[in-house]
Predict the structure.
Amino acid sequence: MDIEEFRRRGKEMVDLMCNYYTTVHERPVRSQVEPGYLRPLLPDAAPAEGESFDDILSDVQSHILPGITHWQSPSFFAYFSANSSPPGLLGEMLSSALNTIGFSWITSPASTELETIVLDWLGKLLGLPHAFLAVGPDGKLGRGGGVIQSTASEATLVALLAARSRAMAGRPPEDALRLVAYSSDQAHSCMQKACMISGTRHMRQLRARADRAWALDPEDLQAAVEADVAAGLIPFYLVATFGTTSSCAVDPLRPLGELAARHGMWMHVDAAYAGVAAILPEQRAGLDGLELAHSFDTNCHKWLLVNFDCSCLWVRDAEPLKEALSLTPHFLRAKGNALDYKDWQVPLGRRFRALKLWFVLRTYGRAGLQAYLRHHLALAATVEARVRADARFELAAPPRFALVCFRLKGASCEQNAALIESVNQTGRAFLSHTELGSQYTLRFAISGAQTQACHVDAAWQLVADKASELLGAQHL
Ligand code: PLP
């Protein structure tokens, strides 16, 4: 394909994208295909000769789109959403076109410098403590700063590696076997994965209870840490979550941070979904004590209109991160002391992700982003009100941010599972589920970029109708 055909095809592709966005609400939200559907539809080897782009696009329409679960549907209420927006998409396009691999400053100075600047911008919008910003209020470079990772899982791993490097400084290598990491059992499984990858032998996932709104109890943590210290282990890493995946529970940062400080632990705050809500001053209460954390991460690709991937990680002090991850082979050695983001992440290569974040922050501004978040919070409040108003349902956790967890009251796990499956099978809405205190729980998560009240109303009506079918007329 030469550049002139690309020019023509590119314009067609933008049309295709626009048509997709304006009609996505008509498609079944959850893909209706069965596992293995694609293999019989495609040849078993790549073509010997190049094919026309028309043929390729025709296969996209007939074979690929039916196998897509439409995360951009306004009736997608499962998991946490993957936001997309026109400026986010345009940023992705431009970054793809430039196709830089900005692992060190010299490989693309603008990509490194823009990333540092927009992470300071976003950090200020979120009200992060100054220590997390690259440039402090005095205009001077500090020890901290932000970096864009691909996912919150990577951020949790990278923070763990920094914590380990800090804890192991001056210790014999065999002490690594005595390191112990902590979180609640509501923390995302990426914490467990980070421990697996890093060879962290001891991990405590402390039980969060319903009577503490599924948050980690500092007293339980204290008891676990003291028992481990008495047994000769070395506490080194604590993950506190601001908005857990199951129910959006918020761990109490201040007492946890004080405890972490007493025991020399690194506290990472995983705010993958809910962190961006801190753009709203009224949502910041749960971040009290954040200045005690060593790192904080939030995914702008979940709820801030930035296309996947854009997980923003800030550290108060970048040195332990660099000590853990910096390795410069001869062919990468450069002069000077410019910031090389390869030393802040696991891979070497990195995309120019700051561009799309910059486009989004500039296009919407603080006021636009605040209005967007408040819109979803208001919609979630209507779902909460409906759960409360229908005696057949109960809330399974205090609603937080734009997530409502609920279930059929007094019904079995199987009945609740049947309810959600009957809703999802229609293709008219897509909800997901979790387990809270061994009980099957439905999750209604509202953060789709195109979601309006009519979509929420229709989805709730569908849930209510399916509940009526399931429970029978006597329960109406
Ligand atoms: N942490 C929390 C609290 C999450 O909710 C999620 C995903 O929903 C993750 C981590 C993992 O996110 P990622 O896919 O960016 O690794």
In short: The pocket of pyridoxal-5'-phosphate is lined by residues 80, 151-153, 188, 190, 241, 244-245, 270, 272-273, 299, 311 (CB under 6 Å). The domain at 366-475 is CATH 3.90.1150.10 (Aspartate Aminotransferase, domain 1). The mean pLDDT is 95.
